[in-house]
Input
Amino acid sequence: MAWYEDLPAVYALADQIAEHLKGFEARQVVNPVDGYPRVYLVHPSDDLHILVIEPTARRERAAGRLILLGCLPPTRAAYDLRGFWTPSITIGRGRDPRALAGDISRRLLPTYRHVLRSAVAHIDAKGAQRLTQQVMAERLAQLLPSGHHEATGWNDELQRITWDTSAVVSGHLEIRPSQSAEIAVTTRSGAFLLDLAALITRHNEYDAGPVALDELLHDPTA
Output
């Protein structure tokens, strides 16, 4: 779809607005997915990206309206920012650029900065959780006979562990993201909870060798 009926005019207005927004500059960027250009107001040092587009409704376009959306940072998976919303305002392009810049400063930037800070903190927490689970899965693979670990799934969220099936009952388990200290585990014989942190601590304290999986799992419904 074409995002603009008059791209040069929208970019020129964004450039004029940027002159009155401290630290901002206008940029025209081609989206690598659909090949269409987008107009942004960008604050490089604060990592703020405001998308400037025309409304899809013809009546709104005819009225000279523009939509400004505060963009959230890209993530490894779309659901990393589930529950976050994109702050936006609508402005009339017929007004003075200085006045439009004032609208952005008052109506968009405070909310946008707040949402962006929360989103970045959330992404960092998800990344730390993902890394912790990966490390724990790697350690667990070392404890099992001929254990092997790999990260799979849409964005490596799923930690898969395989081992020598002659030594234990089942041959694989999968560790999925969890907010709790215990990590949900699915095996061929059912669903369990596995406290990997306690397992690794116990292994380090007693220098134990490879262990059977059924010694490590407990049924959450029991």
Notes: The longest strand covers residues 37-43. Residues 89 and 104 are 8 Å apart (CA to CA). Residues 7-126 form one domain. The chain has two domains: 7-126, 144-215.
